[in-house]
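1st attempt posting a full record on here, be nice pls
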Amino acid sequence: MTAMHHSEIRALRAAQRRAWPRLALVVLSLIAVAGAALYLLRPTAPAPVSRPSFVAAPETALATFASPSRGTTGTIALPPVPRGATAIGDATVTPALPFSTRLASTIDRARALECLTAAVYYEAGAESDAGQRAVAQVVLNRVRHPAFPPTICGVVYQGAARASGCQFSFACDGSAARIPARDGWARSARNAAAILAGQVFTPVGLATHYHTYAVTPAWNRTLVMTDAVGAHFFHRWKGYWGTAAAFGRVYRGGEPQPALPAPPALVTPPPPVATALAPAPMIQPAHSESGAALRDAAPDNLPQQPQILDRWKDSGKPLR
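the predicted structure (as tokens):
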């Protein structure tokens, strides 16, 4: 191997010194490309899904449709589906969760039982225990749904402050003013108390509406029937609002006084119209004194006191 000339060595070293900056630039470029690739390929956390808000919408903000007849609920327009919520429901019947009144006060519990008993009695008083508990389950399902008031009395008497528009017809048609039968009220109270205490009537699922077989309301075509119990058909909403995720409101009491409609005003009869009295009939002069005593009447000819002869004066005395 021949030795390199010193001029060649200097030239080789100069070439190496010029190559180092280029090599460093290439290495830095590769590092930058690798860093960008790693950033783009990093695992990303899923975007947060907003949970549905279960704040009850004011009654004036949603259109309400009154009960068309006895034994049939009214309905209400639904609020928009919460962002990120699944809007597709299934065809199965999902039972409701047990109802709890642990956050309510004693007064709230008493009012809730009274209102629920009234709904059961007047809407399903002639039904079996199963039929009454199904109606009670619908009321509690509405309490948990954001489209309805958050209290039991608010649900039962929704719309009663107006002349018409009740969700339960008994609150507007005067039935609530009728004194209930003692035995019937006691049975309705037992069934209402059982559902309030946490029993679940599973056949109706998450039903929020019902109607009798004698009526076909307009909302019937837009809902899904869950069951038929007694004389009632029970329905739930389609899509997200009919799924268990929509029934997430927690009952906290705050029961209001029932807002029953004011009794109809009494019709005051009009005051009597004064009429002119007919003039007294004229009496002919010949009869003007017909009732007066006779002045020139002849004396009566009654016999005078009888005269008794002396020999007969003692005829009535006893014999001596």
